Input
Amino acid sequence: MSFALELATRINRLADGPLPEEAFQIVKGSLLDTLGVALAGAHEPAARIPARVLDIGSQSGPCVIYGSQERASALDAALINGAAAHALDFDDCSTTMGGHPSVPVLPALIALGEEIEADGASLLRAYIAGIETETRLARGLLPCHYEKGWHPTATLGVFGAAAACGRMLRLDDEALARALAIAVSLSSGVKANFGTAAKPLHAGLAARNGLYAARLAKSGFSASADAFEQVQGFFNLFNGEGLYDADAMLADWGGTLETLEPGIAIKQHPCCGSAHSAIDAALKLRQAHGPFALADIAAIETETHVRRLAHTNRTEIKNGLDAKFSVQYLTCRALADGQIRLAHFENGAYAEAAILDLMSRCTARAHSNDDQYLGTVVVTLRNGRVLTEQASTPFGRGPDNPMSRGELTEKFLDCSSRALERDKAEALAESIWRMEQTKNIRDVTTMLASGPLQ
Output
């Protein structure tokens, strides 16, 4: 049996079987979070430029372009809304995947659900199947896949989207295997484009391409059965011969869900997760010893894992997106302001003279400790005092330190305020928390439509 068919049978068996109630509660929270950050990013250039290029304004279709009055086809909506959801780098994370699990899956799944008028319970069940697919692939591909420069949110997320959409389309094992094999040829995204609009485009393309693969498979489109394991297939090309573990990807599908353990982590800082440990260490320093007069700081040193520093060591910032990937900027912001906010990446905030001056005294170093999430910040004051703090932050708030329903809702309301009036956002949040009761998800998605607030 080919790898694609082995994987497809596991996906269908999982999605057709009993799933724990806790998993449904978790994915409803992640659904709320993803839609919130998508609304916040809906008017960012990373979403609006592709929308203009696709001439979305002159189209019609069944699918809402979030935060606007525009509608489009399912494929175009998946791309635009996927880019919007990743535009601010504020969406959820998976430590297993080394990326963002919801953003490639949900925009595709919601668009398909709008098109076929699916119910909310089916959407949640398919969402879980998509999360499990991409994260279990990561079990046998990371860390090599990530270290080679691939962006797993996109390169693996496309398979999560294909699996989720395939489930909503009720593809049998053979058709779902074809969808996954088609997605092999649609997988893309490199870390060299981090800090630019191309990174959120990765997520949008993964969402679109996963949906496209599922719809092609449903229509009888063909692909190589051995597209993963063939000598010139996905595993050898994306990782390299002997640098992956297919057995790990197929093992334990009857065990604890990845959705539950290690789970989906919700971001508290709107920037690259690889810098969160340094941010949190800086915040602990400020809370214990600050606030600081910036002129009193003689030197700052950050130390994060070599894998994290590889794409966050940025001393010269070009724009707000680039600032989200600078551990130097983010650490200095945390020390100066006691928080990281969306406004810190807008209207030239990254170029403020006081912050640039502080960054000139900041040095970033790498460590290779077993705890790859460990971050250390050392602040040396001009009076000779040396202050040190550490934090180990696996990208966000997960099962070990979960955000409450109230906290998740408040983040959603804060993010959605950039596109929706408060009363509409509150009604949308309540609908999402009751998603399993929804008979037609169009009843929910119509609330995502809005013109820009004045």
In short: The chain is about 50% helix and 5% strand.
